[in-house]
Amino acid sequence: MQRILDFFGQLTEFVGNHYLLSIAFLVVLTLLIVTEGRKAGRALSTQQATNLINRENAIVLDLRPKKDFSAGHIIDAINIPFDSLTKRMSELDKYKGKPLLLICANGQHSGPCAKQLKAAGHDNVSRLNGGISSWRADSLPLVK
Q1: What is the pLDDT of residues 43-78, one digit of tens each?
Q2: What pTM does this model have?
């Protein structure tokens, strides 16, 4: 406990003595977080995702393993498991320019996959916040 108190005492002293450096660090950290967040695509609620699918004809890309996909998925979704995305990226070339909505189990894989897709030239990439779990929690339809 004393070590923690000593650390915060030293941190407070450092910030007091180097306030400009501390402010610059916080600004750079904030910009980094914002930039990285944008690279990962917009995180959408289930309502926003439904609007994207219905109004803009978004292509739904389900990143879950085939077994999970077969147990229930969003209608017309394309299944490319996240661990196969790099090898199968060319299958998505025909959808460049169209909105892509990435779905995974809980939202943990869609961010890195969105970065890959953006790097490959897909400009309009979004991801379902909370993955298929949030879709199920909102009692939205799935097909088998």
Answers
A1: 889 999 999 999 999 999 999 999 999 999 999 999
A2: 0.73
Q: Domain range holding 81?
A: 41-137
Phi, psi of 112 (to 5 degrees): -60, -35
Q: Are residues 46 and 82 in the same domain?
A: yes
Q: Is residue 6 packed enough to be buried (19+ CB in 10 Å), middle (13-18) or exposed (0-12)? A: exposed
Token digits of residue 111: 């961010």
Residue 91 lies in a domain: yes
DSSP 8-state secondary structure symbol assigned to residue 58: P
Find out whether 92 and 100 touch, Cβ atoms under 8 Å.
Answer: yes
Residue 80, in any domain of the structure: yes
